[in-house]
Amino acid sequence: MRQFFNQFKKDFKQIFFSPVFFLMAGLCSSIWSFVFPRQIFEFARKVGVSPLAQGGMDGGANIYGTVFISQLSLTHLLLLFIVPIFTMRLIAEEKKLRTFDLLLTAPITSTKIVLGKFLAAYAVVLILVTVSFLYPVSTMWFTEFNMGLLVSAYVSIALLMGIYTAIGLFSSSLSTSIMLSVFLGIMFSVSLHFISLGGQFSNNSIYSSIAEYLSISTHLDGFFRGNIASSSVLFFFIIAGFFLFMTQRIIESSRWRAK
Question: What is the domain extent for residue 141?
Fold first, then answer.
């Protein structure tokens, strides 16, 4: 267990204290700080109330459906491209620098290596998700909204980022090229959103049901409506677990070849 925590701390510090993280965090914060206030004032203009007026704005449900959902969509879009940038160095760079060979001979299992690297990258990604969450929460000073809906929606984004992080780690294990691992991470993540399209054009009810369950948008919509279904939570864990398992097998096969 000690080796696992050492692996986690090493990779977390490598990502969190890197110039790449501060650049991406600054980029996200700048975009959110520019877009979110504009959406707030646009919403206030439509309802005919100043967001700083006494008594606040009217209709918390409306602000959730317009401003908050837009913030969630923007966060998802940004992190879709940023997560692979965080994970690109975890294995690909170690292979390139030949430090991966030392890791394979260390007294730590392949499973702990994968989990340590995954949790380190995931923790960094959740920091950005939390920063994004603070923007809609800040509006509670001048309007009322359903906090449960907002939390439920952000839980789904956090779970989805777990999938993207697992995919990014898997992509990093496939090559020694950092740029290729970023490209593969983005492509695999984007591809997940198109898996369910085939079910819409199929007359096979079983295939359509499977395709619908594999649809990320279906599970996200449930969370966005405040419906946290156990089947949806299980879906996110299964997909992330699959890519973590594939990464573990790649590392294990590399370990056997190194012997």
Answer: 2-258
